[in-house]
Design goal:
3 domains; Adenylosuccinate Synthetase, Chain A, domain 3; Adenylosuccinate Synthetase, Chain A, domain 1; Adenylosuccinate Synthetase, subunit A, domain 2; binds inosinic acid; alpha/beta
Length: 430
């Protein structure tokens, strides 16, 4: 039996929600290990819709333990408001089923202010298009060793001291950017008001996970965003501020690398991206528009329209390699129903040379041109198919070609947002 890490293999929004929900139903413990409330997915269970940003997906199911790992950055007010909303939908959330790692870092109002001020100050093409949630500045404080952690809330004096030095730094930046500064006392008071309730969830999470491992509980590591947004392996600097690869599941939750187990890469049958930055297969024509409309490609967190394009096998193959993906879950195949022809990017052209990988330089990433292979589309619907036999032959060919190009098998194929509309080839928990 294996644990499972679920990560996105493209630029996020690959449809992790449905797969994570399906797997969390069978897990004992669900752990978030990176990112923060920049993520977002919608779960529909027994007709009730839950929009989750920071809470692990296990929270909506009885008898599961949900852990917000040390690698996550936590906006405590956003967390409390999410807990409140989900509780109102009838879910029991208490310190027995929700655990926040005591060494997770906090996102403070000043991080959001700095996030907005820097985005506003960046000119056109240099804008990152962040979610504005303060994720980047909070991670910056973490590595700069001035961050404030959940455990600091238990010690008001040290909290005040740390807050003062952190705000000194950020208020100087805000002033320089012509933005309003933030009152340190106000933030301190606000934090003191919620510290007891936040601390009631705070635990030594690595010990709880170690116990789960020893007692052979099934652990699901729930990633956010995607490999192309990884701070090392993605389209830097147009990335998020954490590592999104599966290795982060270990570091971001405090378990050994071997505990992570099977790595499932969620992969959309075409490509989308929100925010700015390189996107080699982006389509600016009617096909791009139609993919967006059919796929309902609007962000869960910010409502932004997603950019759409053909499947990029070069980027996904690279994601598979750098993130150690064992198998993929191919999602939204039904969005490709009805096209006469479908294109797949099989290589890039850079300075008249064909290359088989995405180079690191932002200049080169912006300059690569996709080399396409055209395959026949299919007229029949794949929506809701639950076996290979229900798929049109051309759709099966498309999936097989994707597997070949990314050199990785399809473990699951998702054919609609419904949980049971899934073709299971390999159970990741086995
Ligand atoms: P940040 O994570 O808010 O700093 O944003 C950095 C980049 O990551 C931007 O391009 C965002 O649009 C993108 N991003 C962050 N979270 C998600 C997500 O959950 N899905 C897709 N893109 C995301």
């Amino acid at each position: 039996m294996s644990n499972v890490a679920v990560i996105g293999s493209q630029w996020g929004d690959e449809g992790k929600g449905k797969i994570v929900d399906w797997l969390s139903n069978r897990a004992d413990v669900v752990v978030r290990f990176q990112g923060g409330h920049n993520a977002g997915h919608t779960l529909v269970i027994d007709g009730v819709e839950y929009k989750l940003h920071l809470l692990p997906s296990g929270i909506v199911r009885k008898g599961k333990i949900s852990v917000i790992g040390n690698g996550v950055v936590v906006d405590p007010w956003a967390l409390l408001s999410e807990i409140d909303i989900v509780k109102k939908l009838g879910v029991d959330i208490n310190p027995d089923n929700l655990i926040i790692s005591e060494n997770a870092h906090l996102i403070l109002p000043v991080h959001q202010a700095v996030d907005h001020a820097f985005e506003a100050a960046r000119s056109g093409n240099n804008k990152i298009g962040t979610t504005g949630r303060g994720i980047g500045p909070a991670y910056e404080d973490k590595v700069a060793r001035r961050g404030i952690r959940i455990c600091d809330l238990a010690y008001p004096e040290i909290l005040k001291e740390k807050l003062e030095s952190l705000m000194l730094h950020h208020n100087a930046l805000l002033r320089g950017l012509g933005a309003d500064v933030i009152d340190v006392n106000e933030v301190y008071d606000k934090l003191c008001n919620i510290s007891d309730v936040i601390l009631s969830y705070a635990k030594v999470s690595w010990k709880i996970l170690d116990e789960a491992r020893k007692t052979q509980k099934k652990i699901l590591f729930e990633g956010a965003q995607g490999v192309m947004l990884d701070v090392d392996h993605g389209t830097y600097p147009f990335v998020t501020s954490s590592n999104t690869v599966a290795g982060q599941a270990a570091a971001g939750s405090g378990v050994g690398a071997r505990t992570v187990g099977y790595v499932l890469g969620i992969t959309k049958a075409y490509t989308t991206r929100v925010g700015t930055g390189p996107f080699p297969t982006e389509l600016f024509d009617d096909i791009g528009e139609s993919l967006g409309v059919r796929g309902h490609e609007f962000g869960t967190t910010t409502g932004r329209k997603r950019r759409c394009g053909w499947f990029d096998a070069v980027a996904v193959r690279q994601a598979v390699r750098v993130a150690g993906i064992d198998g993929i879950s191919l999602t939204k195949l039904d969005v490709l129903d009805g096209y006469d022809e479908i294109k797949i990017c099989v290589a890039y052209e850079l300075n008249s040379k064909r290359i088989d990988y995405l180079p690191a330089s932002q200049v080169e990433q912006a300059a690569v041109k996709p080399v396409y292979e055209t395959v026949s589309g299919w007229k029949e619907s794949t929506r809701g198919a639950r076996s290979w036999a229900e798929l049109p032959a051309e759709a099966v060919k498309y999936v097989r070609r994707v597997e070949e190009l990314i050199e990785t098998p399809v473990a699951m194929l998702s054919t609609s947002p419904e949980r049971d509309d899934t073709i299971l080839v390999h159970d990741p928990f086995r």
